[in-house]
């Protein structure tokens, strides 16, 4: 299948927002703006890129584990050792257990996304098997709706969803990404001017989330004041940004493609480049610029990994 270059641009945009988000604190408007959609965007892109399950379940699980869990364990172990020996953790067992259950400590903390995505992919594989073999159509969509309703009910009765429910919380974004891909022909039938107008509206929706829903932190299932608003903002704004990149007609860029291939490395290690600064005391414009520098700084490490250690970026072999 021909590579869609707009996806590379969207992934790099998303990882830039991750880096920038980690330079902010709760007192700034930019933080709830970013956090309202940047992780939903990544789950949606993952759903868009997911190929229909075929073959044996064991081979799919092995392939997915190799792409996601091996780099997770590599960076997670390095970060855990950093916490134990450099930071001086007083509870080594707890630190190791956190890594094992998908809650890595230290600079690789943002890697929580990876095991959650792995779980979502396995859930999706099972549901696709049910759809094809038991002829229960739309089971993944029904599961998405059911999961969303469960999270809403928990929120309404005053129970914050436990982080173990993160795959259920995040699954709707993954499925919306798949639906987006499956309906591209219908989207293309809409006049381009209308698409641009809709995208322009959708990418402003995070302003609504920041104003009325407060700061969201998907890591610990803090979904803001309203879980319904959380899903509305996360889905619509992510669709808006994906559509905008798709409409932009962006061409191939070796720089962008390389950074896109190595997003897992950037996710894992970018915090190390934030440590030398008292980053939160710097001006917003400095943090905006420096976050871009941090992302760009990974270009050559990713190139080296592609040639010599592709498992560090969750790949086996890449042509660039």
Task: Note down, in words, how this protein is organized.
The structure is a single chain. The protein is mainly alpha-helical and 320 residues long. 67% of the residues lie in helices and 0% in strands. The protein contains 16 helices and no strands. α4 (57-87) runs parallel beside α14 (263-269), α6 packs across α8 and α11 (205-212) runs antiparallel to α12. The radius of gyration is 19 Å and the shape is globular. The mean pLDDT is 91.
Please state the overall shape, judged from the principal axes of the Cα atoms.
globular
State the helical fraction: 55-70%
Report the end-to-end length measured between terminal Cα atoms: 15 Å
Mean pLDDT: 91
Q: Beta fraction of the residues? A: under 5%
If helices are DSSP runs of H or I spanning 4 or more residues, what is the number of helices?
16
Structural class: mainly alpha
Tell me the Rg in angstroms: 19 Å
Q: What is the succession of H and E elements?
A: HHHHHHHHHHHHHHHH
What's the β-strand tally? 0
Please outline the major beta sheet.
none
Which parts are unreliable, with pLDDT below 50 for 5 consecutive residues or more? none
Index terms:
16 helices; single chain; 67% helix; mainly alpha; 320 residues
List the helices and strands and how they pair.
Blueprint: H1 5-21, H2 30-35, H3 38-49, H4 57-87, H5 92-100, H6 113-133, H7 139-156, H8 166-182, H9 184-188, H10 192-202, H11 205-212, H12 227-247, H13 254-261, H14 263-269, H15 284-296, H16 299-308
Compact description:
67% of the residues lie in helices and 0% in strands.
């Amino acid at each position: 299948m021909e590579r869609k270059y707009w996806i590379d641009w969207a992934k790099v945009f998303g990882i830039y927002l991750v880096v920038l988000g980690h330079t902010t604190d709760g007192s700034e408007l930019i933080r709830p703006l970013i956090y309202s959609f940047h992780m939903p965007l990544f789950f949606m892109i993952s759903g868009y890129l997911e190929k229909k399950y075929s073959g044996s379940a064991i081979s799919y699980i092995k392939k997915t584990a190799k792409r996601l869990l091996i780099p997770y364990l590599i960076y997670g172990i390095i970060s855990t050792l950093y916490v134990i020996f450099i930071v001086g953790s007083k509870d080594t067992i707890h630190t190791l257990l956190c890594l094992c259950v998908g809650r890595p400590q230290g600079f690789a903390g943002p890697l929580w996304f990876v095991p959650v995505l792995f779980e979502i992919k396995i859930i999706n594989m099972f549901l696709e098997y049910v759809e094809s073999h038991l002829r229960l159509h739309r089971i993944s969509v029904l599961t998405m709706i059911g999961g969303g309703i469960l999270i809403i009910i928990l929120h309404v009765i005053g129970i914050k969803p436990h982080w173990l429910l993160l795959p259920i919380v995040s699954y709707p974004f993954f499925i919306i990404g798949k639906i987006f891909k499956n309906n591209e022909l219908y989207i293309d039938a809409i006049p381009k001017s209308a698409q641009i107008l809709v995208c322009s509206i959708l990418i402003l929706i995070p302003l609504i989330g920041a104003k009325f829903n407060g700061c969201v932190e998907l890591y610990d299932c803090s979904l803001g004041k309203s879980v319904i608003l959380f899903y509305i903002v996360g889905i619509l704004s992510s669709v808006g940004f994906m559509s905008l990149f798709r409409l932009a007609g962006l061409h191939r860029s070796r720089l962008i493609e390389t950074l896109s291939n190595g997003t897992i490395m950037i996710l894992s290690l970018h915090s190390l480049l934030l440590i030398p600064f008292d980053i939160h005391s710097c001006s917003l414009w400095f943090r905006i610029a420096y976050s871009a520098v941090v992302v760009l700084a990974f270009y050559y490490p990713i190139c080296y990994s592609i040639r010599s250690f592709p498992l560090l970026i969750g790949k086996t072999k890449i042509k660039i």
